[in-house]
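hey so i finally got around to running both of the ones u sent me last week. sorry it took forever, my laptop kept dying halfway thru and i had to restart like 3 times lol. anyway pasting them below in the order u listed, first the sequence line then the structure token line for each. didnt double check formatting much so if smth looks off just lmk and ill redo it

first one:
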Amino acid sequence: MSLDGGAIHGPKEVSWCGDGAAGASLLPGNAAAADDRLPALVRRYLDQALAAGSPSVICGVIQGRRTYVEGAGAAVGRSAPDGRTVFQLGSITKTLTATALARAVGAGETRLDAPLALPARFRIPRKGNRRITLAHLATHTSGLPSLPPNLLAEADPYDPYAHYTLDDLATGLRGTELSTEPGKVNAYSNLGFGLLGQALAFDDVDSMLRHRVAAPLGMVDTTTALRPDMASRKAVGHMEGEVVPDWHDHVLSAAGTSMYSTANDMVRFLRSQLRPERSPLRDAIELTQRPRFTVDQNLRLGLGWHLSALPGRRTMTWHNGGTGGFSTCAAFIRESGTAVVMMVNTFSQETETAARPVDALTFRLLGELGTA
């Protein structure tokens, strides 16, 4: 099982070029996503998610001024999830952490080019003459490995981060080597984003994310602390058809290892991404979406966000995520005023040739919405 939260480096298996089912939906004049057909369109994608093996699925859509949220479940006699059903969010959390970084930069508390700094017992690895900066961490260009070298030795495979302490992190960093000089190569790193969170709010990351990002945007159920009222409406995670526990983490939680959220909260977050000028976090949101590193001709990186080039000089901004029992994906196109979030309560993993179902369905649905 991957512990990276489901990250991928481009929308695999999704056609944006005009051939195949997804491509046909992008032809000018397509009316598939007209307002009176939006519920039927969303239900079609919900059915596909269930057919791919998800016990339940929730989808939130923004199309211009309209917001639509609907869920579906495979089990007969059980209620379908709704906009308040709680899922683990996974690595989409990285975009919240990046927003917190952008807020700190805007407030003059730090700089994007500031070197990573932690208490003295945490040795920051180096390679060459360049030090790891906060921007390197937020764009996965630090050279850090995906995970600390000592994370898995005593890990519970069903809750792999729960045992890890700050003392363990200090030990792990002493044995960590960079694969490349910082700023040179993109390599996805949960460790890097975990360290970014600790650099912004040492040993208080979860509170920092709530106060600096979730609360100002009205995301009342986006937290690592599962309140009793949230527990009563939480979806149960699955892996290969079996019930599995949630993930828990205090040290690297800024990477998205233990965050909870709902479709309603994620729709609020995505609406703020589409219209930053209407958000209390306008400047920070704009900064996170600004390209900072080019991976290839089709993919650039903002702070936390992946920026994929689309036909017509448009950009799909996105991130996906996952924990042991949940898979998620969120994407939006500012030029068309459209956004989609999809959350399922089962673990899934991409292959060499295909994206995870939740990712492929999110991108395809967004493609249909963006042409109406």
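and the second one:
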Amino acid sequence: MTVEIQQARETAVRRTPKKRKNQLPIAIIVLILVIVLAVVFGQISSGLAVAWIFGVAFGVVLQKSRFCFTAAFRDPILTGGTSLSKAVLTAISIALAGFAVIQLFALQSGKGVPGAVNPVGIHVAIGATMFGIGAVISGGCASGTLMRFGEGFMMQWLSLAFFVVGSLWGAHDFGWWQQAVISASPKIHLPSLLGWPAALILQFAVLGGLFFLADWWGKKRNQA
């Protein structure tokens, strides 16, 4: 009887949910630290203070939204979830509209197309494939890795270290790629090629089609 009572107590202890620690004091300390550093950076340069505040705010948004480009492409296949996929497509659509306005105003003022129009070639496919494989294995893209690094995930600490190594390696070999492949690849600027109306309609049509495809796929997988 005593053994049964002891087992029952151990079972009850295991089933009792752990009380969550109050993290409000830590949050207050971090907030004060952020403000103090913003003031210090502001004394050095106003741009540095703005960059610091924007970086902190961007990190909070990433952590709360769990926004990750890798998950946007991985989840539809592995879990059937497409919420992040639709979020990425929405973000790209907003960026497309914003950059189109900026470029149109720049062209009307005679300044030319702002921004870099980079060549498209086999180097893009090779880089995208290598980065995609690495991102899926490590569990995150650049934004997801930084966000989980801040949360304390040790796997992302290792991923960030090799992220830096890979970036340095890529920078070291960039000259060869530039001479052998990139310089010979064509530069494609759709508005210059098709005209602004046709280019914008085509891009929004592709993004809209992908959005509805992702929405259909998510509903289909959830019903299965």
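quick thing i noticed on the 2nd:
The chain has three domains: 24-65, 69-117+189-224, 121-187.
anyway thats it, ttyl
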